[in-house]
Amino acid sequence: MANSKLYKGSLVTIILKLLNESNKMYGYEITQKVKELTRGELKITEGALYPALHKLEAEGLLEVEVKKVDNRLRKYYKLTEKGNKETVSKLQELQEYIKTMQVLVNPKLSLE
């Protein structure tokens, strides 16, 4: 994606949606899933991802489970009940935003 600033406002929604679809994921796994789903168009950096994950955890939307994998500790992130509710809200918000942008970018299509 040429302008990565556009996705920054959607980062939390992206994280919540991925965790909603999976039981739990670790940070690197999230970055790779986004890269895979977008065919490399969108790359989430660790510098953007981990502060967002920590913020979501502090807000009570995520819980963390630490497991030892290959002699390393790995943090898995999982949605809380509050996180599941927030995911629904964020996805509705994003859909409304997309509709509004479509009206602005291509008003002829929005006359339906």
How does the SSE layout of this entry go?
Blueprint: H1 5-8, H2 11-21, E1 25-26, H3 27-37, H4 46-58, E2 62-69, E3 72-79, H5 81-105
Helix pairs in contact: 2-5
Keywords:
single chain, 112 residues, alpha+beta, Arc Repressor Mutant, subunit A, 5 helices, 57% helix, Metal_resp_DNA-bind_regulator, WH-like_DNA-bd_sf, PadR family transcriptional regulator, WH_DNA-bd_sf
Describe the structure.
The chain is an alpha+beta fold and 112 residues long. The chain has five helices and three strands. The protein has a three-stranded antiparallel sheet. A hairpin with a 2-residue loop joins strand 2 and strand 3 (72-79). Helix 2 (11-21) packs across helix 5. The longest helix has 25 residues, at 81-105.
Brief summary of the model shown:
The chain has 112 residues and is an alpha+beta fold. It has helices at 5-8, 11-21, 27-37, 46-58, 81-105, and strands at 25-26, 62-69, 72-79.
Straight-line N-to-C gap: 29 Å
Q: Which whole number gives the mean pLDDT? A: 89
Radius of gyration: 16 Å
**Spatial ordering of strands, largest sheet:** 1-3-2
CATH H-level homologous superfamily name: Winged helix-like DNA-binding domain superfamily/Winged helix DNA-binding domain
Predict the CATH topology.
Arc Repressor Mutant, subunit A
Task: Classify the beta-strand content into a percent band.
Answer: 15-25%
One letter per element, helices H and strands E, the order comes to HHEHHEEH
Work out the number of β strands.
Answer: 3
Low-pLDDT residue spans = none
Protein name: PadR family transcriptional regulator
Domain Transcription regulator PadR N-terminal: 15-86
